[in-house]
Design goal:
This protein has 492 residues and is an alpha/beta fold. Helices cover 33% and strands 21% of the residues.
């Protein structure tokens, strides 16, 4: 007789989103989906039995903010950085990508660009993956509905500071950096038209509308340009603190206010405010939510901003946009998490190798590239810092798995219940480790978390029932799939 289950994970303490305490039980898997969750399931009915030995079982993390291919070729990043995902319990990685410099270093329509993205990533990922796309020029707006229907891309992005600021600092040549046609402008008017285009697509596709959203990187170019000059001329501040001062928190707040009013003006109700880094940014986001209650704002923070400050990060490798802030802002973000004002936590993983990250003067923060990896520390970091502050296990699962999965149309992800993909992470909450870059599966040779103690360890990871991490080691060939969205559960 054929076995009832392909895999049975026994003896787990099962963490469900928004259920405060774990429940003892077993997880049965068939054809890549969870079919039963209960204590005492029949081990004799399974082709393979894995003893969780009392470890916590988390839903596979949905890291909804990554940047594969930004500093390294996409095909290479897909392989190496997806290994880092698996190492940390991330089973679904969502990557922001766009035309222009970096990524594929080309412009043109997404009808030509995106198939190349899919080709370069296919067969190379150790975890499941999806892409968010950024409409950079007018013709991209016209492609919105096609991208949704043809490729299953339901989430889009605006980089608000690109108007007169480059990826790493000042920029005076928008067209060459963004590779947009002469006569196009990446500015507030373009942002408005992007919103109108997405709302048209939502209206044309009413069955998909709730899964279609726009994300915004909220910083104000004019404020940053002026403050960068002030910081450089003053010369008093150094390192990551200087970079934070050059991109001050009220720059975030102002951009959030502009974005919110444009959402109100255009009738677009599904807005995601990305990587809020400061008390002022969170204050602005909550103010806008009260001002425009008909807009469904979601608020994101990163494990980097929750774990490190400009005083504690290990060197200029911690340069990122928006910047790491001081301890007061870090604690303000944690208070927002505890108050229920944060919807999900991500890594903003962008592998930038040493040879590219730093300028000739390795101590010049303004010469360094922006961004760093960290997906492998997402769950350990949230557990480490969250447990200090009384954050429940169930809230952690909601913040790292269920909530981003729901928002971004991944309805088979984010929970340990029948009908969901069997993405399971077994965590030892009593095994600590000290972060060393050399131990990471990422191609990045440094980390701003170097020397940090993480008080939880990811031991085993399953992707759709297939084990991809065993005893803290990534195993097997790449088995990740591209996720066209929305992905529906078969039992709904």
């Amino acid at each position: 007789m054929d076995p009832t289950y392909d895999v049975l994970i026994t003896g787990a303490r099962i963490v469900r989103p928004d259920v405060d305490e774990p429940a003892d039980g077993d997880i049965a898997v068939r054809d890549g989906r969870i079919v039963e969750v209960a204590p005492g399931l029949d081990a004799g009915a399974a082709a393979e039995v894995v003893d969780a030995a009392g470890r916590l079982a988390f839903p596979g993390l949905v890291d909804a903010h990554q940047h594969w291919g930004i500093y390294n070729p996409l095909d290479i990043d897909t392989r190496t950085e997806s290994r880092a995902c698996a190492q940390g319990g991330v089973t679904t990685a969502m990557t922001y990508i766009r035309t222009g410099q970096y990524y594929l270093n080309r412009g043109g329509p997404y009808a030509e660009f995106f198939p190349e993205v899919l080709r370069l990533s296919e067969g190379r990922a150790h975890v499941d993956y999806a892409f968010h796309l950024a409409p950079m020029m007018r013709t991209h707006i016209d492609e919105t509905e096609h991208l949704i229907q043809q490729f299953g891309v339901t989430s889009f992005k605006i980089f608000m500071f690109y108007g007169s600021h480059g990826l790493h600092g000042r920029s005076t040549d928008q067209s060459s950096f963004l590779m947009i046609p002469e006569g196009d402008h990446y500015d507030i008017a373009h942002f408005e038209f992007v919103m109108r285009g997405i709302q048209r697509a939502r209206a044309a596709l009413p069955d998909l509308a709730d899964d279609i959203s726009l994300s915004l990187h909220c910083e104000t170019a004019e404020i940053m340009r002026a403050y960068t000059r002030l910081v450089e001329e003053d010369g008093h501040l150094r390192g990551l603190e200087a970079y934070s001062a050059s991109r001050p928190p009220h720059s975030e707040g102002l951009a959030i206010a502009v974005a919110a009013y444009l959402a109100h003006e255009t009738g677009l109700p599904t807005i995601n405010l990305l990587h809020l880094s400061s008390a002022k940014a969170m204050q602005a986001a909550l103010l806008m939510a009260r001002t425009f209650p008909h807009v469904d704002f979601r608020r994101e923070v990163t494990v980097g901003h929750l774990t490190a400050s400009y005083d504690t990060a290990a060197g200029l490798g911690g340069k990122v946009n928006p910047p790491l802030r001081g301890e007061d802002d870090r604690e303000a973000l944690w208070q927002a998490v505890l108050d229920g004002n944060v919807d999900w936590i991500v890594s903003d993983h962008a592998c930038c190798r040493d040879e590219m990250k730093f300028g000739e003067d390795r101590d010049d923060v303004f010469a360094a590239k922006s961004g760093f990896g960290g997906t492998e520390y997402l769950l350990p970091g949230v557990i480490t810092e969250g447990r200090k502050r009384g954050l429940s296990w169930g809230r952690m699962a909601a913040l790292t798995a269920r909530n981003p999965a729901r928002r971004y149309g991944l309805h088979t992800k984010g929970d340990l219940a029948p009908g969901f993909d069997a993405d399971v992470v077994l965590v030892d909450p009593d095994r600590s480790f000290v972060v060393r870059a050399q131990d990471s599966e990422s191609a990045q040779e440094y980390t701003p978390f170097e020397g940090f103690e993480m008080r939880a360890t990811v031991d085993h990871v399953f992707l759709r029932g297939r084990q991809i991490v065993r005893d803290r080691n990534v195993v097997g060939d790449p088995a990740g799939r591209y996720l066209a969205r929305p992905a529906r559960r078969t039992d709904l």
